[in-house]
Protein 1
Amino acid sequence: MRKRLHPSAGNVVLVYALIAGLWIITSGWLLDLALDDGTVQVRLEIAKGLLFVLVTSVLLYGLLRSWAHRLEDSERLMNMAAGLAHVGGWQVDLQTGVVHWSREVCRIHDMPPGTRVKVEDGIAFYAPAYRDRIRQVFRACAEEGIPYDEEMQILTREGKPVWVRTIGRAVRDEQGRITRVQGAFQDISARKRDEAKLRQWATVFESSDEGMIITDDRARILMVNASFTRITGYGPKEVVGRNPNMLSSGRHTRLFFRRMWDTISLTGGWRGELWNRRKNGELYPQWSTINAVRDAEGRLTHFVSVFSDISDLKSSQEQIERLAHRDALTNLPNRLLFRTRLEQALIRARSHASQVSVLLLDLDGFKHINDSLGIRMGDQLLSSLAERFTAILQRGETLARMGSDEFAILVEQGADEEARVEQVAEAIIQAVQRPVKIRNNDVFITASIGIASFPRDGREQDQLLQHSDAAMHHAKQAGGNTYAQYSRDFTDYARDRVLLAADLRQALERNELVLHYQPQVDLISGEVVGLEALVRWEHPTQGMISPGRFIPMAEDTGLILPLGRWVLRQACVQARAWREAGLDFGTVAVNVSGVQVQRSDFVETVGAVLRETGVDPALLELEITESFVMDRRQGSEELLRQLKSLGVFLAVDDFGTGYSSLSYLKSLPFDALKIDQSFICGISLNPHDAAIASAITTLGGHLNMEVLAEGVETREQQEALLALGCHRAQGYRFSHPVAAKAIPEILRRATLMPDDAKIPHH
């Protein structure tokens, strides 16, 4: 191919030719005119020639120097471009077999500039997996003129792997013979890394369980992943190019979305709960994260949204919320919701100078009905009475189930409605007196009602509840089937509590208290997996006093502190003795009163008892009621973690009877949940109880907690629990609470399973 001269070089040649021609013509003619002497003329001709040579030499030198500078500049620019693009050149002389590398090729190989190598030495730089391939394509190029363009990996002189693109072309002479092979060499490591990242991102994008949407800066959908289709029902072709608002459920206001986009504009992202609509029209909740993507100059380029379907979580939360605020049997408000409404009513009463009354109702002899007719009949009676009570109340009045057979009614009265509370009490008494037909049997029962009113009988909700409880017990002592207004005078019940408190103080000093232990068993094997310590009071004149009678009194009077420490210490001493005797009993569980924690340094108390008794902390389990944990959220997490750091096990007692937040409960270091016996009694017959037990068992499994059922008495209850996946229980079906001396014999038995048990085979 013919090369063209640079325009400046052509101009110089023309000027030079013109000047030289003029000089030759004019100089000779001028000399002929000026001189007659031939000798002088010859000498001047010589001088003229020398001058011509000198001038042309200077001009030629200047021209060559200019071209050299331009070549250097051009080479410098080429080297700079090659370095920036990581592209170098190479050439192989096929006669000598020597490879000439450019500066950039030398840099890529970690070799000094100007390096020349033999062909095989150059091939040796390639990673072993690529050497055969580069020999093959180079030979085909050198012998047949077949060009190549390959991406391979080399190992530099320092042993560093580098991805390169190598291009080779054959160069022929005038006879068409291949004399050289030359080409380009480029470092493409950065591109390969980017490609690997893109492949990883693509894998994550497509395999993620969460739905993903990528839009442009105008929120037009560019890409969606497979999970998006699974969750929404829309395929990629149905959504690409459209706005994500096509999924809108209509449940959110324009203000909601405006604030959402304002947040994205200000912070670059937003996260929260959204309700969207699937392709089939179904509404569903999703947890979404939306982030704005900007380029290196800060320009908005894309939006990326990641979301997950939280329908199952919502359903669980709603079920837990219902369990937290509603009684499972009657669907009435429970104790927590009643207290909330009472507090709200008191706030209104204080601002409007009105009256608020609390009626506490307890069924007379309900335990006898439960024992004689069965728990299922008792539940039906409670449900029927709840319906009757609801029909009596007016709008704005609250009926709640506070416990087993205990109901509470909240009545707000204006200045002209003072008689309303007595009307309600009288109507309730009459409603209870009417027989309830259950299974073609007429069941008769009565009720005792205690009334306390704001502001006369108390100004705080605790006072009103306590005083209505005292009035209710006074009504019971009067024979039941009546109601009583709270009186400030001491009642027989109050005197009994005062006397009992005095006796309890002495009982601690006289060693009248004793611990009994109830085994906790594996529902499949019947083996003992733990023991629960239960305190009993052997009163010198009244005989055995139930904990249900003296524990609440001990909590009210503060005696629960020394009593609780005594129980804890005795249980630890006994646990150590059993362990030293070689008995395997799992753990000894001790109930912890909320008052113990509130009125003492409980962590220090437990630590001191563990040190005093020398018992292995792993043998001790502390049972803390659900209601106490949730009522005392502030600081309870730290308290529980301090207890856990001592090495003891922690269990939530009476689970399902209080209020639990899933998001809060999951952060607490509990090892076990105990299903309250109120849900176990009807588990085989009542679908509500079964649903609650199932929810608690599932929740415990997901939170990695052991689940144990309390109060198991029948084979049907045992089988129902096994069917739900609950494998631990305690109750009369396996053993009553027994004295410590009877425990070794129980532990030596192979199983506590009754003979009628149907143990599933695994």
Protein 2
Amino acid sequence: MKLRWLKWLRLLGLSAVVTAVPIAAADYVLSQHAISTGQAEADSMAERYLARAETTVAEALRVLADLRTGGRVTCSLADRTAFGMAAFNSEFIVQVGLTDEAGTLICGEPMGALAAPARLPVAEKGDPSVMLSVLSDGKDRRQAVVTLRVDDRMRLVARLAARALDIEAGAGYFEDSSVASVYLDDGSEWSKFAGKWTESDQSSALVSMVSSERYPIKVRVAVDEAAAQKSIAGLRTITIILSTLAGLGVFIIVIWSMWRQSDGDSFSRAVDNHEFIPYYQPVFDLMTGEIRGCEVLVRWLRPDGTMVPPGQFLAYAEATGAIRDITRQLMTQTVADVSDIYDKNPGLKLAINLTAMHFNDLEIMDDIKRIYGNSKIRYEQLCFEVTEQHPLKDLALSRAIIGRIQALGASVALDDVGTGHGGLAYLQKLGVDIIKIDKMFIDHIGTDHSSQTIVDTLVELGHQLGLGIVAEGVERPDQVEHLKSIGVVQAQGYIYSPPIPVKAFREFVLKSLESTKSGLGARTDKPVEVSDSFASLTVSVDEDDDEEADAA
């Protein structure tokens, strides 16, 4: 009980870890992504403000340069009119005028823009031809001006609109969480844009600073990191949900794995305890009614007497490689079960199913020689069936193994012809002796033209290639008659017998052989009757499971 609780605690701990680790990892990744995105947004905002400032100054210079080139450099009525028209036609200029060397505005248009301040920066000899300055009323009002020298005493001046830099530079979620400042190289602030957030020493800010390469302008943008983190809140929620589901999924998977492990342990014990036994399905001569042998199929007989059909364990056996041990056990048991009968009746055939795994190496050859080499069952009485349902990894190696089996005197059959991966390529490359026509085609004889045509074609192909032919899953007299009419000699199926345990099979064989010797033969229109013990042993066998049992 303590171990069980410990196992459950481990399971819950694993599920918690699987839930918490992705959340922590995702939170870190998302946090870094938010910081990276916020920084990129701050950089983008700074670049946009700088671009607008450069555009504003460039337009002012263009306007002033056009006026100077046109000789509009006096305070005459015509020149003032030109100043007013230039300001009116500009998106960013609110006033154009003329100033003296002391910075006094001599004239300017439109006049309404002269409210304050009137004094401009003093222009001295040696100053640049173009000057950019910021005027302030000492409070919150600031105005940028651009001046262009006319001569040593006079400068054209353009006063820029305060709204010139009022743009939507960033994402909506940063609108109230950022501060942007545009200022000149001398430190004078041109414009400042701030939301509700105020940058302080306690706050975490993402800062971007850029400088113009054309003008003495700098831009600084600070963004609240907390706002950037809020932008990924939805992703965090999704991550928590997905991680919780992942933890639940791991819980379910581990429970399933524990169940599978428990099932796998019982399976391994079953292999070690030789709980897998052969069932025998007789094969008959359609023309004479004589028994020709059998196909060996696998069943799992538990110690409590319950029978596990092959469909519930064959896939697991193949996936784990246990099918090799099971096949060896079946072959060894056939020697104990029927070697005396086969010794007295050398015409009987014993068909053993092999899987694709058996053709990955030469181990099967050692098994065949060790088990049947000194037994009363001759190599010539053996037939090894390879199925099309699972692909062979190496056709050249598979062909070599088949050749070695045939060299012993045994034959090789291609099972489930037409239903799997190999198709006609297996017939061409493997060099088999017999083809077995699958039940799925036999079922539709007389009811489906396509399936019947496939059967007829396979039979004709087999005859042309000189191959033996066995029909599987024969259940009705009309199927028997059609198969006989197209030259199929051997068949197996429920019309004769389902797979049966060794005791019933021995009775079946002996009774069939006695009937043959007495000249009565075996009937082909209904199952041959055997003892009551046979009926009780086979009542739980499902025909569909026998199809899956062909793999072992």
